[in-house]
Design a protein that fits this description.
single chain, 283 residues, alpha/beta, four-stranded parallel beta sheet, four-stranded mixed beta sheet, 13% strand
């Protein structure tokens, strides 16, 4: 009887994927995926062959840059922030279905010189589960030579969180924090003023005790999404949230009864009609 080879543990698979690279420049957003990737790369390759870079742009939520800086300092991770110019690109501002392509292309513009200087590979925190969503940014990065070590290691999102927890990374259970542009429906131009309005609106909801939140921007309407388990609790804060969000310029504040769904604005790209049965006024 032929012996069955034991399964390679997820952590070892990631280490092997990183060890195959001479050096890396990590696109570092401070979420669990890029955090695990950077922390593991630091262990496997050492600080001389790892550089984490956070893109400072108008689509980055307030506090995220400080969050990335604090993580890097705590780990002894070489880190810097660089401004990206996606908002200077008409294709990005137009916010068609390929907006994320132009965002990642702008990111690669600033990462590539660093990678060339260090003879390193640009790596992104993309996991297996990410491959099933509409994410043209992955195509832009891959087309310019970036690698996805979490995918190379066949890691799911659940395995990423498990490994991050095993490393005692404080972000192991952190909610996803996609860029603020993802709150703007396709076809609505992305502007600094809209991004700022969304950023401030989400800060208001978070300050009320809701850590996982999206405020979808529909012109003069703010559509608030929180996990379904938080729906009852947020209704209890309706009056103060309506007052605060209307003070930011929204005329209507609605609550999506379907709960928070990451990437749900992508429904429009699949030719499916927008949901109207899942929202209701907060008061």
């Amino acid at each position: 009887m032929t012996a069955v080879e034991p399964l390679v543990p997820p952590g070892l698979r990631l280490e092997e994927a990183l060890a195959a690279l001479d050096g890396v420049v990590v696109a570092f957003s401070g979420g669990v995926d890029s955090a695990l990737l950077a922390h593991a790369a630091l262990d496997v390759l050492g600080p001389d062959r790892v550089l984490a870079v956070t893109a400072a742009s108008g689509s980055l939520a307030t506090g995220e840059l400080d969050h990335c800086r604090d993580l890097a300092r705590a780990w002894g991770l070489p880190w810097l922030s660089l401004a990206t110019a996606e908002l200077d690109r008409p294709e990005y501002v137009a916010n068609a279905g390929d907006r994320c392509f132009w965002c990642k292309d702008a990111l690669m513009d600033v990462l590539q010189p660093l990678a060339d200087e260090r003879d390193a590979t640009i790596v992104l925190g993309v996991n297996l589960d990410d491959l099933g969503d509409h994410r043209p940014g992955q195509d832009a990065a891959r087309g310019r030579g970036a690698r996805f070590p979490l995918v190379d290691a066949a890691l799911s999102k659940a395995e990423v969180r498990q490994l991050a927890r095993g490393r005692d990374l404080p972000v192991w259970d952190r909610p996803a924090t996609p860029c603020l542009s993802s709150r703007i429906p396709y076809g609505t131009p992305v502007t600094v003023s809209v991004l700022s309005q969304v950023d401030r609106a989400e800060a208001v909801v978070r300050s009320a005790g809701f850590g996982d939140v999206r405020v979808r921007h529909h012109g003069d309407t703010a559509r608030v999404e929180v996990p379904r388990s938080d729906l009852g609790r947020i209704v209890e804060r309706a009056d103060e949230l309506v007052d605060a969000l209307t003070a930011l310029g929204y005329r209507y504040v609605t609550l999506d009864l379907a709960g928070l769904r990451s990437g749900n604005l992508n429904q429009a790209l699949a030719g499916r009609p927008p949901r109207h049965d899942g929202t209701t006024g907060l008061r």
